[in-house]
C-alpha cells in the first residue's frame, strides 16, 4: 500500500483555493497557454512564492530536453490552470515523462521523487491532461563529433581525460565492442559498465556523434568523471586513414603527459 500523498484531497477545488496570475519570475511555467493558476497547487504549495521557489529546481532538467511534454506535466502540478476544478495530469503523461526524464535525473544522482508517483494520477479520460507527443529526447551531456586537429592535441586531450575508449555505435544503438584505453579513478569494470549505461541513456550524444555516419562505426570517446557523472569531452570517428589519430594511437603508452 502506498503512503498518502499531498496530492490526495486536492482533486476538487477547495473553498480556500484562489486564482493567481502566474508570477513573471516563475520561469518553469511561462508561455504555457494560460496565465492564471490555482493555489494551493497540486503539490500542496500554499503561495505563488513557494511554488516559484520549488519549481526553479526543475529548470536544469528541462534544459536537457528529456521530454517535450515535461514542462506541461510539471506546470499542471506547480501551476494548475484556474478552472472550476483541479485538472490533473493523466497517468500516461506522467509515465511518459518519467520513462524519459528519470534516467537523466539518475545521471545527476537524483531519483524520481515519490511525490510524483504516476499511479496516483487518473487513467486517461477527458478530465486530465494527456501526453501530446511520444518523441522524447534524452541527454545527460551533449557531445559533438570532431576531427582530430593533430596527434599532439589528441594526446593532450587524452592526458586531461579520466577515461578513453573505443566504442562501436550506430544511429540507434551501441555496439558490443568497447576497448578501454584509460579508466582514471574507476576500476576497469566500473568504467565499462558506467560508460555503456551513460551512453545508452544519452540519446543526444549518440545521435550527435553518429549524425553523419548513420550506418555506425567505431568512435574514440574521451571524458571526465565528475562524481556520479561521466562527461564526454571529445569524440572522434576512428579510422586508419586519419593520420593524426593513428599517430596518437601509436604513442598512447609512451607519451609523457605534462601534468
Describe the secondary structure blueprint for this structure.
Elements: E1 18-21, E2 36-39, H1 48-55, H2 59-63, H3 70-78, E3 88-89, H4 91-107, E4 128-129, E5 145-146, H5 151-160, E6 163-169, E7 174-182, H6 188-201, H7 203-210, E8 217-226, E9 229-237, H8 243-250
Parallel strand pairs: 3-4, 5-9
Antiparallel strand pairs: 1-2, 6-7, 6-8, 8-9
Count up the domains.
2
Shape category:
elongated
Architecture per CATH nomenclature, i.e. the level-2 architecture of the largest domain: 2-Layer Sandwich
Residue windows where pLDDT falls under 50 for at least 5 positions: 1-14
What does it look like?
- The protein has 259 residues and is of the alpha/beta class.
- The protein folds into 2 domains: 18-116, Orthogonal Bundle (Frizzled cysteine-rich domain), CATH 1.10.2000; 144-254, D-amino Acid Aminotransferase, Chain A, domain 1, CATH 3.30.470.
- The chain has 8 helices and 9 strands.
- The chain has helices spanning 48-55, 59-63, 70-78, 91-107, 151-160, 188-201, 203-210, 243-250; strands at residues 18-21, 36-39, 88-89, 128-129, 145-146, 163-169, 174-182, 217-226, 229-237.
- The strands form 3 sheets. It has a 5-stranded mixed β-sheet with strand order 5-9-8-6-7. A two-stranded antiparallel sheet has the order 1-2. A two-stranded parallel ribbon has the order 3-4.
- Residues 14-131 form the FZ domain.
- Disulfide bonds join 29-75, 94-118.
- Keywords: Developmental protein, Differentiation, Disulfide bond, Secreted, Signal, Wnt signaling pathway.
- Belongs to the secreted frizzled-related protein (sFRP) family.
- This is FZ domain-containing protein.
Amino acid at each position: 500500500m502506498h503512503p498518502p500523498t499531498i496530492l490526495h484531497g486536492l482533486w476538487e477545488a477547495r473553498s480556500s483555493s484562489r486564482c493567481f496570475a502566474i508570477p513573471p519570475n516563475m520561469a518553469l511555467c511561462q508561455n504555457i497557454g494560460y496565465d492564471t493558476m490555482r493555489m494551493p497547487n497540486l503539490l500542496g504549495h500554499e503561495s505563488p512564492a513557494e511554488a516559484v521557489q520549488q519549481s526553479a529546481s526543475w529548470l536544469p532538467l528541462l534544459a536537457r530536453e528529456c521530454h517535450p511534454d515535461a514542462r506541461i506535466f510539471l506546470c499542471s502540478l506547480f501551476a494548475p490552470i484556474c478552472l472550476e476544478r483541479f485538472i490533473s495530469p493523466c497517468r500516461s503523461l506522467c509515465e511518459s515523462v518519467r520513462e524519459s526524464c528519470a534516467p537523466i535525473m539518475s545521471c545527476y544522482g537524483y531519483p524520481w521523487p515519490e511525490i510524483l508517483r504516476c499511479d496516483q494520477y487518473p487513467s486517461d479520460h477527458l478530465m486530465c491532461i494527456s501526453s501530446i507527443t511520444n518523441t522524447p529526447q534524452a541527454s545527460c551531456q551533449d557531445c559533438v563529433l570532431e576531427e582530430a586537429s593533430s596527434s599532439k592535441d589528441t594526446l593532450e586531450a587524452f592526458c586531461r581525460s579520466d577515461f578513453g575508449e573505443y566504442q562501436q555505435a550506430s544511429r540507434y544503438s551501441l555496439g558490443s565492442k568497447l576497448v578501454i584505453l584509460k579508466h582514471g579513478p574507476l576500476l576497469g569494470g566500473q568504467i565499462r559498465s558506467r560508460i555503456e549505461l551513460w551512453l545508452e541513456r544519452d540519446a543526444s550524444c549518440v545521435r550527435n556523434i553518429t549524425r553523419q555516419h548513420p550506418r555506425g562505426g567505431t568512435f574514440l570517446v574521451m571524458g571526465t568523471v565528475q562524481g556520479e557523472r561521466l562527461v564526454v569531452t571529445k569524440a572522434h570517428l576512428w579510422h586508419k586513414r586519419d593520420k593524426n589519430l593513428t599517430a596518437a594511437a601509436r604513442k598512447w603508452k609512451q607519451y609523457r603527459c605534462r601534468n
